[in-house]
Amino acid sequence: MNINSKPRQKSTVSTASLPDIIFMLLIFFMVTTVMKTFDGLKVQDPSANKIEKLENRKNVIYIWQTKDGSVCVDDQTLSNIDDVSEILKFKLESSVDPGKMVVQFKSDQNTTMELIQQIHTECREANALKLSYAAKKLSN
Q1: How far apart are CA 13 and CA 51, in angstroms?
Q2: What gap in Å lies between CA 37 and CA 56, rounded to an integer?
Q3: Residues linked to residue 138 through DSSP beta bridges, in sequence order
Q4: Three-state secondary structure call for residue 136
Q5: What predicted TM-score, i.e. pTM, was given to this entire model?
Q6: For the chain, where are the E strands, in sequence order?
Q7: Partners of 133 in the β-ladder
Q8: Three-state SS for 62?
Q9: DSSP bridge partners of 136
Q10: Cα(100)–Cα(130) distance, integer angstroms
């Protein structure tokens, strides 16, 4: 006895709606993502005649210092200024390319040179030798 079987049709999944789904996911993630901005401390930037922008902001460690001596490193407010070198050492060791790391220093315009010198000493101890100072453009 010969049984003839009917040829089966292969079922395929339609991929016509796949680009729409991917586009919707892309829009969702773009809308819900929050870009990180540093709050830091409230400092009044000093003025300068010649200002250059940092080219690459990915390899930057931000330090804020107020005139009363409060210090903040990348949104971490420190109770003791001596902790700056430890945090800088950790950030430099954990970075992919420590040679390209730049320390962006924002100090209040009324900060004494003694407080600024303490931060310089802490940066030297951490071997963070590339310093950049933040200032606003001097208005004529």
Answers
A1: 59
A2: 15
A3: none
A4: strand
A5: 0.62
A6: 47-48, 60-65, 71-73, 76-78, 102-107, 131-133, 136-137
A7: 105
A8: strand
A9: 47
A10: 8
The distance between the two most distant Cα atoms of the chain, rounded to a whole number of Å, is: 105
Identify the three-state secondary structure at position 78: strand
Span of 34-38, 62-66, 78-82, 98-102 with lowest mean pLDDT: 34-38
Q: Are 41 and 64 a contacting pair, CB within 8 Å?
A: yes
pLDDT score at 37:
66
DSSP 8-state symbol, 61: E
Architecture of domain 47-137: 2-Layer Sandwich (3.30)
CB 61 within 8 A of CB 91: yes
131: left (phi over 0), alpha (psi -120 to 50) or beta: beta
98: nearest Cα among 76, 130, 52, 72: 130
Tokens of 54: 């940092």
Cβ 78 vs Cβ 84: under 8 Å: yes
Q: Tell me which of 51 and 123 has the higher pLDDT.
A: 123
Query: How do the domains of the chain map onto residue ranges?
Result: 47-137
Backbone dihedral angles phi then psi of residue 71, each to the nearest 5 degrees:
-125, 140
